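Before the break, one more example. Copy the sequence into your notebook; we will annotate it together after we see the structure.
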Amino acid sequence: MIQSSTPRLVGTLLLVLVWATSLAAQPDAAVTGQPDARATDTQPADDLWQFDDDEDVETWGTLLRDQALDLTLFVAFAALALVSFFRKSVRLKYVTLVAAVVYLGFTKSMLISVVDVNRLATWNLPVFRYSLAWYLFAGFTVVSTVLWGRLYCGRVCAFGALTQLMDSVVPARWRVELPVWLEQRAALVKYGLLAATLFYFVVTADIAVYRYVEPFWMFTRQATTGLWIGLAVLLVATVFVRNLYCRFLCPVGAALGLLSKLTVFRIKRWSECNTCKICEKKCEWGAIRGPEIVMTECVRCDDCERLYLDTAKCPHWIILRRSPATSRPPSPSAG
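Here is what the structure looks like once it is written out:
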């Protein structure tokens, strides 16, 4: 039985040996650069991983199409904000504030945060091609601040817009006017919060603390009970002290205030501004101190600029009317 099976075993071994020799004689596709015939029988030669040839390739065209709606809406909003600013229109200003709350706030939850300040300080920014709307938003904020001052705080920030809308409906008799000395010292608190928050970020790499120094999370409608209680207290306090958070507590306002020291187009002043107190009393942000407009506190709300151009209220124009000998009005001086 064993002897009869031996030829069969030998024949099998010979067949295996011939097959193995033929395989060894074939050129290696990796060496010659030619596709392996065995691979071409089952898959394309240039797609060893069997990816779908019809899969879309990521291009700037596809990236722009995917983000086109966000880019278009923000450009429209920015245009509205600038038109309302240059026209000094009260009506357009409030339209812009409502749009900021609805669009940037509750719809997109897109605000400049102290987290973004930390990102810039550490150069840990979002991937550009996937965050075009954010870069456009941040770029608009920085450029507008350098050109005109804290325009962002005055009519773009959704939370600031909300508190200004509150201020427009709260009866004036409810307001508590802080003494000037207290107001000026309280304005420094936001700079301390900015420094402390950035220091905490650097030491711990924990950005979650931003929720305790910024109420902007309210637009996401996601927070703990304790945070909602804190927000309620802040908004109630804002009823009595106008723009409380923006003036005294906002780290982003502090950062933009420092940047506004570079402002190019400042509010101009008449020579009479050295003695007149009308604009100083009108300013709700504590940004006018005698003849000086403090750019770190000014949010370009337009109030003083409308008074400045009002020929019936501004002493400059009244003095000119009473001095007919004056042939030419004096040029305004930069404030």
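Confidence is low (pLDDT under 50) at residues 1-49. The longest strand covers residues 268-269. Try to locate both features in your own notes.
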